[in-house]
Write a structure and sequence with these properties.
The protein is α+β, with helices and mostly antiparallel strands. The protein has 6 helices and 5 strands, in the order αβααααββαββ.
């Protein structure tokens, strides 16, 4: 079965769950605050797209929320970008709406929209999936930052690949004797 067909469906369900679920974010009622939040979200996302497009590790690091920036160095992000040339590639999209948690103007979600038609095939499915995801943002130290969430995050930097060029050597106890 081709599971790539299901990706947009799951993305929409995830987005609706995040937007409509119990205790979920709601649209800011005050239009002035809503306009300011949307402007800040657009600026953040524009900066994010530019930094990730150039693979500017220093700027990406500055745009990340502390849930990642406290665990990753600029050097680790530089290594990640060297290994993962296609990392953080996004379709042509823009901010459609900004949702904030009721009573908390320090956390929000950005709802995106594709600015053009999705590409053909699997790339179009990936573009629609990425655009359908709500992007969480948080205000830290007076600046909006991107919150990256990973299913299993551990203690270290999630962008560091641990690999060894050495062959595993069996211990003496694991080798049967003749």
């Amino acid at each position: 079965m081709n599971f790539s067909i299901l990706i947009p469906f799951f993305a929409i369900v995830l987005a609706l769950t995040a937007a409509c679920g119990t205790g979920s974010p709601t649209i800011v009622v005050d239009s002035q605050i809503a306009d300011e939040m949307k402007k800040a979200a657009v600026e953040l996302f524009d900066d994010w797209l530019e930094a990730t497009k150039k693979h500017d590790a220093k700027e990406v690091h500055e745009l990340l929320a502390s849930n990642i920036s406290d665990r990753c160095t600029v050097g680790q992000l530089e290594q990640f970008f060297e290994i993962s040339r296609s990392a953080f590639t996004y379709p042509d999209m823009g901010v459609k709406e900004v949702f904030v948690a009721a009573g908390n103007s320090e956390e929000a979600f950005i709802k995106m929209e594709l600015l053009g038609e999705p590409k053909e095939g699997d790339q179009g499915l990936r573009d629609a999936y990425v655009a359908a995801l709500p992007f969480p943002i948080v205000r830290e130290d007076g600046r909006w930052r991107m919150v990256l969430q990973f299913p299993i995050i551990g203690d270290g930097c999630p962008f560091v690949y641990s690999s060894s060029s050495q062959e595993p050597v069996p211990s003496e106890d694991s080798t049967p004797s003749p």
